[in-house]
UniProtKB/TrEMBL annotation:
It is found in: Cell membrane. The chain crosses the membrane at residues 12-29, 58-80, 87-105, 131-152, 186-203, 209-233, 245-263, 269-288. It comes from Desulforamulus ferrireducens. Keywords: Cell membrane, Membrane, Transmembrane, Transmembrane helix. This is ABC transporter permease. One of its GO terms (cellular component) is plasma membrane. GO terms for molecular function: transmembrane transporter activity.
């Protein structure tokens, strides 16, 4: 049971970084961005190639983050500049990224990095006390998730972040103060996909493997984590939304782990994800209805 708990927390924090990205596009921008299914493996593909070339794994995180920015920028430009709908913009870039990721991986469907240095076995990881070696992965992913959460909190508190939040809620307000609504939306999508690609990089380093299909269903997992987190922790007014999202990711992973414990296996993961997402949607709808009444 203890090992399951540790695994849930590890996965919860890793995918929580991805969920923070989905939170920006889905909750702040009100943009159903399917690019996520392509930018997640994009971060992993970039990382796998860099690590096999001997690049510092922390630098690989940074490069993956930048690659995610590029993916989000393309989606934003297609949507804003060429007036393509949000859904189609994401689908187009997601589809293109499949081929791009395949090219980045030198036309390989997967790249194992078992012999490469990662953030979990090199650099700062070697300086942690031996006593916590069993929890090393959890400690590192917790620190990475915490840093990204605080960075996002800081950004959302800046003038640019305020305009980003206003873009999803009040488009007229943004344009009334002579700010380019479209540019802010593009910036938001770039940041969103940067977080998602970074999560893909961490997953790649933790699993020591890149797989071309590892992004499938990422958007659903992210949405489930966001909806669960914002609903479950809503009564706790002192918590920031980003903290709620991380908590939602852990709850989601805990639900998946419990499903496996009662007899489901890996082949059922998509079914489990769909059911959890449906439950989150239904619960969210009932909560909103109750508030309206």
């Amino acid at each position: 049971m203890f090992d399951i708990l540790i695994g849930v927390l590890e996965q919860g924090f890793i995918y929580g970084i991805m969920a923070l990205g989905v939170y920006i596009s889905y909750k702040i921008l009100n943009f159903p961005d399917l690019t996520v299914d392509g930018s997640f493996p994009l971060g992993a593909a970039v990382t796998a190639v860099l690590l096999t070339a001997g690049v510092n794994p922390w630098l690989a995180l940074v490069v993956s983050f930048i690659a995610g920015i590029g993916a989000g920028l393309i989606t934003g430009i297609i949507h804003v500049k060429f007036k393509v709908t949000d859904l189609l913009s994401g689908i187009l870039v997601m589809t293109a990224l499949y081929s791009i990721n395949y090219r980045i991986a030198d036309k390989k469907a997967n790249i194992p990095i078992f012999d490469s240095n990662t953030i979990f076995n090199s650099g700062i990881a070697k300086h942690f006390p031996e006593a916590i070696s069993s929890f090393l992965v959890l400690v590192i992913v917790f620190l990475v998730a915490l840093i990204m959460k605080f960075l996002l909190d800081w950004y959302l508190s800046t003038k640019s972040g305020f305009l980003l939040r206003a873009t999803g809620d009040n488009k007229q307000f943004v344009t009334s103060i002579a700010k380019d609504y479209g540019t802010i939306k593009i910036i938001g999508l770039a940041i969103s996909n940067a977080f998602v690609a970074l999560a893909g990089s961490v997953v790649c380093q933790q699993q020591k493997l890149f797989d071309i299909s590892m992004g499938t269903g990422t958007i659903v997992m992210g949405l489930a984590a966001v909806i669960i987190g914002l609903n479950v922790f809503k009564p706790l007014k002192f918590l920031k939304a980003t903290t709620m999202v991380l908590g939602g990711s852990i709850i989601y992973k805990a639900c998946v782990a419990m499903a496996f414990e009662v007899g489901f296996d890996n082949a059922d993961i998509r079914l489990i994800t769909a059911v959890l997402f449906l439950i989150a949607l239904i619960s969210n709808g009932r909560i909103l209805k109750a508030r309206e009444e």
